[in-house]
From TrEMBL:
The keyword Heme is annotated on this UniProt entry: no
GO molecular function: transmembrane transporter activity
Entry keyword set: Membrane, Transmembrane, Transmembrane helix
Entry protein name: YbfB/YjiJ family MFS transporter
SUPFAM superfamilies: MFS general substrate transporter (SSF103473)
Transmembrane segments: 12-31, 51-70, 79-98, 104-127, 139-160, 166-187, 207-227, 247-267, 274-293, 299-319, 331-354, 366-383
Keyword Zinc set for record: no
Matches recorded under PROSITE patterns: MFS (PS50850)
Stored InterPro entries: MFS_4 (IPR010645), MFS_dom (IPR020846), MFS_trans_sf (IPR036259)
Cellular component terms (Gene Ontology): plasma membrane
Amino acid sequence: MNSLFDKSNNAAILLAGILAIVVGIGVARFAFTSLLPFMLEDYLTITNAGILASFNFTGYLSGAVFSVFIKDINAKVKYFRIGMFLSVVTTLVLATTTDETLWLLSRVVAGFGSAMVLIVGGAIVMVKLNFEDKTKAMGIHFSGIGFAILISELISQYILKDGNWSDAWLALAMFAFIISFYSVYILSFDKEIKQEAIKHKLSKSIFTPYVILLILAYFTEGVGFVVQGTFLPDIINSLKGLDGYGSVGWLMVGIAGIPSSIIFMRLAHNYGSVNIIILAMALQIIGILIPAISTNMYLNLLSGALYGSTFIALVALFMHLGGKLAGNNPVVLMGSMTAAYGIGQVGAPLYSVALIEYFGNYNSTLYLTAFIVFVGILLLVYAKKIENKM
């Protein structure tokens, strides 16, 4: 047991990384999705929900771009801790007030905190792990996103049996506060680490047509991620005969998400990253379209599973591929990819709510989102042609 409190133990480092994701992504980001149907009943309108989601992603985008420029590992530890603190405090805001301005502010700040936890925290985990090959270990780390959705959903549902959504936010904030101590303790260093900062010249030559197509495809995946990531439980609840199944659908997202990056990363190793990215995006399109064309309960639960198994894996796949292509310039390429994905995330909730308000259901939003992800697949097919000519 002592070894789990040893800061250099690989199992402790991975556990701390996963628990950090549960706080920064599960509680500060995705709990909003699982509680959305209940908040829509008596507080939020669908338009406000979309705006809050967009604000959250704006905060995440700013944090993601900011994180690219944090070079020093000691500074990374500091910003990771700030991210953990912000994740807890912004959750507390949702539990204790219904002031709309405070909610908007808290969602922006929560987004920034999530980026610090996922991106900067992931970088600390990478530095601290002592494995020969860290790819598999990072697959385990990213499985934390599935755990994060699952755990935050189970806590929410348990509290909602007797309480309301603000009680659920309070319980989530308290839970996040308690587990954050372990992550903050393990993901730190006993003394200042002297790291020689290697200065790489910023080279524009990295942005070949092939890389630009990849970045554009990742933008479409940012769009593909958002609609279900924001509305999935409500989408399922809105279907005839499926009211109340939304939370089961969201549980499926978490369960399917846990092994997904490990499985897809292995497939990418065997069959090539771009091929497996295309496969994952095709599966995601099927998942997006199911609620628009069927009210079958099992198919709609499958829709949740397809979403959970693809969106986490796609982030891992694109980032891994970007890292390989970037060579000595990971910061510039990772920053550009993350920004493209983030812009997709910020825009998608806004067109979603406009279409939902206009048509009175989710179908048009789902069709448009599926089409945008399909354009991403076409871009990747074209990128492959360019690559073969190189």
